[in-house]
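STRUCTURE:
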């Protein structure tokens, strides 16, 4: 698969026109996607946490994504879908994390200076909601769930678990 074809599939996933079954079942694309997710998560955590703490937080978040996906796929008896699911989640998470990046920077700056950024906060919430919807759709198809809300609940469970672990260990929130 060419890089342009791969990027088009990521775009289609983000626009909810494709599912994880449309991603390549190649470990190389999965590793690339998870690495991109890790890098974007690290960059999003940098302003509040610094490099090393941000990197460790991103590693924890990525590990939770992998473990959560594996556990959910095992529970629904679809472990063979792990590579495509992680490719879809990692790649869309990286792209949507890049969309969140400028919003997070404005919000970090507003918090540091005691200012307000209400429009940016609304944009952040809309983008975060879109990310939850995209992850929910990916989980819905990967887990072969009949109802959309179950996929969204699975996505929220991942985000809640990652946030709890990162907040518990580091006292900060996740970057994306």
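SEQUENCE:
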């Amino acid at each position: 698969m060419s890089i342009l074809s791969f990027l088009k599939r990521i775009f289609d996933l983000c626009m909810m026109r494709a599912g994880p079954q449309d991603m390549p079942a190649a470990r190389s694309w999965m590793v690339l996607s998870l690495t991109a997710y890790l890098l974007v998560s690290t960059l999003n955590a940098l302003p509040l946490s610094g490099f090393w703490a941000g990197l460790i937080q991103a590693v924890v978040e990525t590990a939770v994504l992998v473990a959560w996906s594996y556990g959910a796929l095992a529970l629904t008896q679809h472990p063979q879908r792990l590579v495509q699911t992680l490719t879809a989640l990692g790649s869309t998470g990286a792209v949507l994390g890049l969309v969140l990046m400028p919003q997070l920077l404005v919000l970090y700056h507003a918090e540091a200076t005691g200012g307000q950024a209400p429009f940016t906060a609304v944009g952040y919430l809309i983008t975060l909601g879109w990310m939850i919807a995209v992850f929910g759709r990916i989980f819905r198809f990967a887990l072969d769930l009949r109802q959309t809300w179950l996929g969204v609940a699975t996505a929220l469970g991942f985000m809640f678990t990652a946030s709890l672990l990162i907040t518990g260990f580091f006292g900060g929130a996740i970057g994306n």
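REMARK: The helical segments are 3-14, 27-49, 51-75, 82-113, 118-142, 148-170.
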